[in-house]
Every structure is written in structure tokens, then in C-alpha cells.
Amino acid sequence: MTNKNKISIFLFTLIISLPLFSQEKIETTGKIPIVAWHGIYCDDMTEERFREQKEAGFTINFSFCANNEQLKKALDAADKAGMQMIITTPELRSEPEKTVRQFMNHPALAGYFLKDEPLASEFAELGAWAKRIQSVDNKKFCYLNLFPTGGQAHFDALGVKNYREYISRFDKEVPLPFLSFDHYPIINDSIKAEWYENLEEFSDEARKVDKDFWAFALATTHNVPGGVYPVPTLAMLRLQMYSNLAYGAQGLQYFTYWTPLDNSFWDFRHGPIGLDGKRTEVYDLVKEMNREIQQIAGVFLGAKVLSVHHTGNQIPTKTRRLTLLPDKVKALDTHGSGAIISQLENDDQKYIVIVNREYKRAMQLTFVADESLQRVLKDGSIVPASNYTSTMTVLPGDIMIYRY
């Protein structure tokens, strides 16, 4: 046999063998929206800066622009880089119809920003403003972010009796296509007790009105009354983002992308882009987090939450303890560590999502299930769950996903 024939046989054998080595991947029809809140400063909105933002895994930039002329240049640069923007200018407030007509057909436009963290007394005016925008453009979304939960003094300041009233009143008075809230759970050296209660109430209220919700992770350390939000680690980002997804979030946001210049009290520092305009170590952490999210986006994008429960020696306030094992699961034990156990349904597939609630410690997970269960790996690959030992280590804040 000649060398030429040997090479031909080798290549033929390799080609017909390729399907045997191919790995099934989770399918997705799109990307989870990921917003860079307080994104690129309008003066710095160049194609190169938007490409840098896109490389970090963001899909939408949100920043203030001083006027519509400046905004037009920013949108053009974003379009060249394949990014979109949530826009706001003084003219959007003073001349909403005219401004919307100017930008509504721009390919880089994602939506229109109204206000951050409004009081209940502002809802009526905001609702009227949103209707003026939507009367011209009902294809792009209007966007507004709500306060997190808090104590009675907080509710009194908001002008409501409780947090659920705040959400429900907002939805009735401000007709937006989805709901959004911020809550930064890790302060000083611990997790706020009310964080999961906030996720419980917000996700439940969103389901009641059949709307998606968007949620945040904190990417920039700063001071607040009562403590300091720390420089994020990958485990902190995972805990926040995977918890949001386990509760059904359909859009994710980071506060902030560019480190804010206002340091009179807050002392903002170590955002993904620093005060000097250069990348910090957090840029790479956020980039890794966003890469992980999009690789498993097919599990979460468009998913319906069937149930969310918790395990552990102690479970968060106003959450439900897991007492009944999910379908086809024979054993599930987190050995005293806290975990979220979320069950989702997406395109006739059901998923069991397990999130380690600790951002400092790994968790031992014992999971035994029917042979039909598959495991979705972090790169989106799908493998038989039975390929793995029944007890494994889940890293701090990390996720395990099973499908049946």
C-alpha cells in the first residue's frame, strides 16, 4: 500500500469517526441580555471602547449623554462594535416624541431609560412619560429600575405599606414590559439576611403579572451607611448571578462598568474600568462570569420557574425548605451547607439547578438520580449524570445543573 493510500484511508476513518466524538451542547436561540450599568462615559464612547465592552461579555451599555447630538455619535460607534444601548438625554425628558422619532430606527438602540429607584409618588408621572414614548415606539422597551426591599422606615420613605405593594403599584401605574430591581447582598463580610426574601417577593410579583424580571450583581466596591461593599471575587459574582438565574431572571446587570467619578462619600473604586479609564482585575472576573452565563443560557433564557427551595442547617428568611425531592431524584444532600434548589422548565425539558449559597466555602453535594438524568456542564456540554460520582464538591457560589 502506498503512502498516498494510507493517508487517504486515515482521513476517511477520521471523518466518519467525528460524530462519535462530538459532544451534545445545550441549545439556545439567543443571548441573555447583560447590561453595563453606568457604562462607558459618553465622551469616551468610541468603537474601540464598545468592542472592549463586548469582549467582556456585555450586550447593552447604559450611560447618560448630555444631548442628542452626542448620543447620535455614541449610537453609531456602538453599532459598529455590535453593541446596543439603553439611552437617556435631557431631550428624552423634555421632548420625548421628537427624540424617540430621531432614534427609534437606529440599530444600536435597545430601549429608553426613565429613572432609577423611584418613589411611589413618582409613578403616575413616570407612567405618563412612558406612554408618550410608547405612543411613538412600542417595539423598543422603556426601562426603569426599582429599589430593593428594606425595613418599615424604608417603606415609609417609598410611600407604601410593604415591598409587594411597591412592586404591584409600580406595575399598574407604569406600563413597562419587564420589571427590574437592584439588591447588592454582600456587605462587609457577610450576606444580607433579606436578600433571598427580596428575590422571593420580586420574582413572585413578576410571575403574577406574567412579566420577566431583571436583576443585578455588584462589580464596584464602595461605601454605604453601615459598611463597605467589598471588591468582588468570582465566587461573589457567581453567587449573585446564579441566584438571580435560579429565581428566573431573564436579564442581568452589573453596577457599575466604569468606576463612577463621584467619590465625595461613596468612594467608588475597582470597577471593571477604573477611574483612569484602564481595566482593573474585576474586568477579567466579569468577563469570565459573562462567558459562563452565555454558555448555559439555553437553560435559563425563556425558562419557567416551577419551584425554588433551599437546603442547609439554616435557610434564608421567608424562603421554603426542600422537603420533597425533585422528580427522578433519589437522594439530594448538601450536608448542612446552604443551597438553592430550583426546578425549571424550558422547551419541554426540565432542569434541576443547584446553587451553593456560600461565597467563601465549597459545598459537598450528594446527588443520586434516575439513569435518564443528564448533567449540563459549565461549557454547555450535556453528559450522563451517572458518569459522575454521587458526591462532588461545588465551589463557592457555583452551580450544578441537571436535565431530564
Describe the protein in words.
With 404 residues, the chain is an alpha/beta fold. It folds into two domains: 34-300, Glycosidases (TIM Barrel, Alpha-Beta Barrel), CATH 3.20.20; 304-403, Immunoglobulin-like (Sandwich), CATH 2.60.40.1180. The chain contains twelve helices and 21 strands. β7 and β8 (190-191) form a beta hairpin. The longest helix is centred in the first third of the chain and has 19 residues, at 3-21. It is globular. The N and C termini lie far apart (50 Å). Mean pLDDT is 94; it is low at 9-21.
Task: Give the helix tally.
Answer: 12
Largest sheet: 8 strands, parallel
**Widest β-sheet, arrangement of strands:** 5-4-3-2-1-12-9-6
For the record, the count of structural domains works out to: 2
Structural class: alpha/beta
Classify the helix fraction into a percent range: 25-40%
CATH architecture of the largest domain: Alpha-Beta Barrel
CATH superfamily of the largest domain: Glycosidases
Beta-strand segment tally = 21
Low-confidence stretches: 9-21
Strand content: 15-25%
- The CATH C-level class name of the largest domain: Alpha Beta
Shape: globular
First-to-last CA distance: 50 Å
